[in-house]
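Try it yourself: sequence plus nicotinamide-adenine-dinucleotide, in.
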Amino acid sequence: MKILIMGTGYLGTTTAVAFAELGWMVSGFDPDTDKIEALRQGRLPFYEPGLEELLRKHLQSESITFYSDPRTAVQDHDVLFLCVGTPPKADGSADLQFIQAASEQIGSCMNEPKLVVVKSTVPPGTQAKIARWIANAQRAPIRFDVVSNPEFLREGTALQDSLHPDRIIIGSDDEEAADRVRRLYERMDCPIVLTTPTTAELIKYAANSFLATKISFMNELARLCDALDVSAADVARGIGLDPRIGASFLRAGIGYGGSCFPKDVNALMFTAEQYGVPLSLLRQVEQINRSQPAYFLNRMKSRLGNMRGRRIAVLGIAFKPGTDDLREAPALAIIDALLERGASVRVHDPVARLPVGLEARGAVQRESPEGALGGADAALLCTEWPVYASADWLRIKGLMREAIVFDGRNALDARRLKALGFDYHGVGVR
Ligand code: NAD
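Structure, out:
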């Protein structure tokens, strides 16, 4: 089977490299010719640890190639993976325009039977729409199958997650098509769930929504911990040891961001409302998350008073460590609010670049943490990059105007910082 990955962003490029690593011949197609050119030269258009090295290895062995022409790309392959974006629309629903365009490309270009596998995150019921879009774009009827195969990789550990997944979900009404997808993953050692397309699509949204629920649960509880002067980390540990609860996703902070949780929670709520089954719990999850940066900013305001003229060093802007992805990163909303209140903002992030819009409003990116922290009235940690936890805080104290730290990810050693004389503030940290 020759595999074509349609859409070579974070998901598509990782998937392509993972399949090559599993021994398959893989190609990538993307209408963004700059992206394709960079990938052909072995350069990733985004940051993902370990991925570029493996991309180069497979380019060299010619097990990965890249196409910029959709017709030859579709015609030269028999398995086509849809990995295009499904960004949020203003009303919270998933924008399926890229899915539709890619499906129509497949329909109009195909010259022999194809197996189409949907890896993009799409609302329940989309597999049937994709089949219709392909069929309507065909010049003459040619057989094809559409199988749902959602992906659970996490940016920052994408390669590891793709090569060693917890589970593989395959949604198909056709046993033979499902079996062909299963064979692609034969070398993987994890449970495979064979189910219907709509179930597979819902599993992906349910997984992200559940994880988002854990985060918002802990963040709201951390507000109570602040009021009670109780450690949210101790509460998290105390409940997380119960295997029915589990320890992960219970660290309080400034809330979740990224290209998946915010959009997927909203898209699931939108779909549910269309079916007359509003998901009121998720409405709260989303609301808590949206207000969490403001909650932390209020804590800052109580300590610092008027922000005008105050210099704040923002450490980390990516939505999480290990990525340069800024989609829905809480740091951006926080920087925006700080600038709005007249603060002077110096930013550091090991890989992510400050958006031009915030730069134009006066925020400045520095190339080292010390560059951002020098002369600062307070440090504000927004992304838990390990470099901040391991920094020499004694030296940093000497660089700052005031030794105040706001740890928006509860990632620093609070006890040590306090011992060094810092006025330390976390989320639900005593
Ligand atoms: P992305 O924006 O990084 O990449 C999407 C790519 O699709 C872009 O390069 C774009 O040029 C390309 N594209 C647009 N139209 C196309 C077409 N007609 N044919 C081929 N390519 C086309 O997005 P992403 O983060 O890779 O996410 C893609 C999908 O994967 C989304 O549905 C997302 O929810 C899902 N997903 C993402 C992750 C993640 O961590 N990023 C994890 C799991 C699932």
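One thing you can check immediately is this: The two ends are 57 Å apart (CA to CA).
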